[in-house]
Amino acid sequence: MNRRLEEKKEQVALKISLGAGILFVLVELLVAILSKSQAVLMDSVYDTSELVMILFSLKLVPLLYKPVSEKQPYGYSQVESLFIAIKGFVLVSVTVALIVNNVQIMFHGGRDVQFLPIAYFELFATVLGGAVMLILRRMNRLANSPILRTEIMEWTIDAVASFGMALAFFLPALIHHPWLERMLPYLDQVIAIFLSFFVLPLPIRAVVTAMRDIFLMAPEEETMRIIKEKCEPILTYYGLEEATYDVVRTGRKVWISIYILPMDEFISVTLYSKVQDLLEVSLAEEFNDFYIEFLPDIL
User: Where are the alpha helices (DSSP H) in the chain?
Assistant: First the structure.
């Protein structure tokens, strides 16, 4: 797939996510106002912050497909990492604020809400979230965009969380017991807090990964393991085993430098060129956008 087609496909996918998100948030806000549910309000505030980020994503995507230049040796990939870090910080801040708010409501005696309408709405949200997630996954199959992966993660969270909330809000209609009736004023806040703690690790992980990319640190162990698994059999076959890996990631692009200690004082340019071609073919099975250089480590 050429870069122009990739860019267009990524923008279409983001617009689908934006359109579905706007519909979702409008219905969610209406349900939150009518039901006075903190759990639904928490979800709507979270989803609204995601919508704002999608608008920024649409402006960012064209920059990511600009070619590398002397002025921009890494292109605009680090802008993508910075954007993901900011988005993660925003989502973490929103989630923590909602946890604090719900704890305060619980200390003031909780709040009675209408459970059945919320339960039916959450079933609708589960179906919508699952459908959008599947569409985005299909569209991202070849593009392998970090921004779209973040969108897929968020719609997956929405679908799973909505299904869990639907089950929880059906409980008062299914179970009639004195202990549950005493808990009803707090049920909405408990669900909201549980949902917040369920969501929180994902934006934190996104921030940590993005910060590693911004500061050009080596990527996580899983990425390094994949690179070595793809490269080492080829290097071993050609007797080039004293390898040092220098890997950084900027947004969606992985920059790989492999330095080999020469076997003797003469270096075969033909051999090194052939091995680099084989490494590129092998790495292309795992990485959509990468640059590799294979060099002798001359002391």
Answer: 3-35, 38-64, 77-107, 115-143, 146-174, 178-199, 201-214, 221-237, 269-283
Taking the model in full, what pTM does it have? Answer: 0.65
Whole-angstrom Cα distance, residue 32 to residue 188? 11
d(CA 125, CA 159): 7
pLDDT grade, residue 74 (50/70/90)?
A: low
Token pair of 33 as six digits: 């106002």
Determine how many CB atoms are found less than 10 A away from the CB of residue 34: 14
Task: Label residue 245 left, alpha or beta by phi (over 0 means left) and psi (-120 to 50 means alpha).
Answer: beta
Dist. CA 42–CA 29, nearest whole Å: 10
Backbone φ, ψ for residue 175 (5° rounding): -120, 125
pLDDT at 289: 79
User: Whose CA is closest to 119, among 67, 194, 171?
Assistant: 171
b/e map 47-82, b = 16+ CB within 10 Å: bbbbeebbeebeebbeebeeeeeeeeeebbbbbbbb
Rounded Cα–Cα distance for residues 81 and 251 (Å): 5
Q: How far is CA 116 from the centre of its chain?
A: 32
Are the C-beta atoms of 55 and 25 separated by less than 8 Å? no
Residue 86 makes CB contacts below 8 A (sequence gap 6+) with none
Is a pLDDT exceeding 60 seen at residue 1? no
The neighbouring-strand residues paired with 290 are 254
Reading the block at residue 280, the tokens are 């590129």
Cα separation, 81 vs 197, whole angstroms: 24
N- to C-terminal Cα separation, the chain: 41
* Pair of tokens at residue 57: 């994503």
